Amino acid sequence: MRAMVLEQFGAPLKLKDVPVPKIGPNDALIKVRVCGAGLTVVIMIATAGRIKSFPRIPGHEIAGEVVEVGSEVRTVTVGTRVTSHFYLTCGNCRYCRSGRETLCENFRGNVGSGCDGGYAEYVVLPERNLVPIPAGVTDLEAAVASDAIATPYHACHAEAQISPGDNVLVTGAGGGVGIHMVQMARLCGGRVIAAEVGEEKMELARAMGADEVIDARRGELVKQVKALTEERGVDAAIDMVATSETLQACLGSLAPGGRMVIIGSKPKSVYGSEPSFVVNPREFMRQAQEIHGSRYVNNAEIARTLELVKHKRIKAVVNRTFPLEEAEQVHELLRKNAIAGRAALIVS
């Protein structure tokens, strides 16, 4: 089969012919149709220690068809269209059993780092990672929904707890996850203030429902937010960028009782600076504010997200698609912040 392979840390991805992987009793073999490509993969590849064995095939936003199942598999059959959960978990610890799989006590890494991922014609995944794709949802939509839309679902619903009428700040609103965060916050009833750099991304945020758009290149993000909220601030600030500057600005933009939600990070090893910020505990306590770390989703949330896509409540925004062999070029565009919305690889 064809696959984009990372042969060692720091190397570029290479198109290679490799054997079709073998399944175990609790696994399924998936013929990959589409695999999303975003900054999560780019950062994973560039962060020493995230991938512990090479060669490795990255890619986790997978949509495809089951072509073989192990002897113990019961929830999918040959022909089932599926997408996948990103985390490799045990399913039995107290966190997995309570629907918080991302805190698994026996975590084995991620699809694309702890095991081979979807930048290939076939991938083997554990049964517990598979989520069936409902009729009416395309492979492209499902691949993006498994992370770039499901992550906003969890962030808005469980962490930011957005209610109708809330003011919501989204930084990095025109990126692959951010553009779906804009839609999800609107779906929850929020008035969305989108912060971005670059005309294309700002226009995309407007087109996808942002009520206000801030050009972050102008600086003074807190001042711009306060001007749009009659100096009160926002009820929720969701930071997709997570640099020191945006983290501090999100904190400073909160209204009393406001919730700040951090999605992802920009590690110093990749971006050259530490993504830290300062909290005044006395003021933070006086304002009764909250900081939430939002760590992906559980399987049930992926299934709910797919239903939202099916019923056209959320649109999968994929502005550019590429063939499998151009994965390295896609990653370079992502490093340069040159793609508005999500990108995806069309595998087969």
What does this structure look like?
- This protein folds into two domains: 161 residues, Quinone Oxidoreductase, Chain A, domain 1 (Alpha-Beta Complex), CATH 3.90.180.10; 142 residues, Quinone Oxidoreductase, Chain A, domain 1, CATH 3.90.180.
- The N and C termini lie close together (11 Å).
- The relative contact order is 0.17.
- 29% of the residues lie in helices and 25% in strands.
- The chain is globular.
- Strands 3, 4, 5, 6, 7, 14 and 15 form a seven-stranded mixed beta sheet that branches. The protein has a six-stranded parallel beta sheet with strand order 10-9-8-11-12-13, with helices on both faces.
- It has 348 residues and is of the alpha/beta class.
- Strand 8, helix 4 and strand 9 form a beta-alpha-beta unit.
- Helix 3 packs across helix 4 and helix 3 crosses helix 10.
- The mean pLDDT is 96.
What's the level 1 CATH class of the largest domain? Alpha Beta
What percent of residues adopt helix (DSSP H or I)?
25-40%
Average residue pLDDT: 96
Terminal CA distance reads: 11 Å
SS class:
alpha/beta
Counting H and I runs of at least 4 residues, what is the number of helices? Answer: 11
What is the CATH superfamily of the largest domain? Medium-chain alcohol dehydrogenases, catalytic domain
Morphology: globular
Low-confidence stretches: none
Q: Specify Rg, calculated over alpha carbons.
A: 20 Å
Count the E strands.
Answer: 15
Number of domains: 2
Please describe the biggest sheet, giving its number of strands, its sense, and whether it closes into a barrel.
7 strands, mixed
Question: Which range does the strand content fall in?
Answer: 25-35%
Q: What's the architecture of the largest domain, going by CATH?
A: Alpha-Beta Complex
